[in-house]
Amino acid sequence: MNLRQLRYVVATADHGTMTSAAQALYVAQPALSRAVRELERELGVELFARSGRGVVLTAVGEQVVRQARVALDAVDAIEGLSVARANGRGGELRIATTSSLEPELTGRLIPRFARDQPAVRVRVVRCDGRDHVAAALRAGRADLALTDLPVPGDLAAHPFEQREVVLISPPALKLRDPVPLTALDGMRLVLPARGSARRAEIDAMLDRVGARVVPAVESDERGSWLGWVRAGMGSLVWYRNQIDDAEGLVVRSFMPPITRMIGLVHPHRHLPPVARDFLAFAKETARETRERKPH
């Protein structure tokens, strides 16, 4: 029995289906189902019974969930004491991330965190894709990670922000606004270089929407992308929050929207105090950002 299994059982009880519980925890549904089944085998009892399209707790399941809530609350309280005792102490914090999300860390989160915790040294562990981020966490090379969600069930996920993917085009390109996804077929695009992590990310995104595009420029010189768009060489598919200066260009949303949820991720084990401090800081930052957005 472990805390991850208890969290999954409580979430399933709260949400009524394993699919909804997995979505709420930002983990893969098969991983959650497998963990619940493993706990049932270990305990030798059935915790859930099917009811329509969802599940309901059995009598013994209700008892297990009741005790699981007590255990999880106690763990949270103990870890909170650890953070309180360590408040103000220095140390090193290692955060893994991908190349497309590194600017989020180095340009926004880390500088603000450093002002509050000047004694903490933050080191960024650069990874080529989400799988490598997970591997760095499992191997102990990083304490936390900023990455795409969902993640495998052996990792805990804390949603941070949802990002919108937009189309940046020269004014001469006449398109509907928002842009239908079908308009991407045959479109000339400025793309990251082949073989790079950024290119793999964009290719996967285009594959998901079934778009076949024409590479106009292929380069990892990110600072030049908008210049090539201004020169009329092609359009750019990228994240709205990572566009530095779109003056003279047209930025359009897609219909249906293309979004990406990112979050802070860590293994299901006790976090170092500085990692818990950063996690709490990131959650507060995300909350403030949401409150500032117009409704």
Automatic annotation (TrEMBL):
Residues in HTH lysR-type domain copies: 1-58
One GO CC term on file: protein-DNA complex
Coiled coil regions in record: none
Keywords: DNA-binding, Transcription, Transcription regulation
InterPro entries: LysR_HTH_N, LysR_subst-bd, WH-like_DNA-bd_sf, WH_DNA-bd_sf
Domain of life, source organism: Bacteria
Gene Ontology molecular function: DNA binding; DNA-binding transcription factor activity
Stored SUPFAM superfamilies: Periplasmic binding protein-like II (SSF53850), Winged helix' DNA-binding domain (SSF46785)
Family membership noted in the UniProt record: Belongs to the LysR transcriptional regulatory family.
Protein name per the record: DNA-binding transcriptional LysR family regulator
Organism encoding this protein: Actinomadura namibiensis
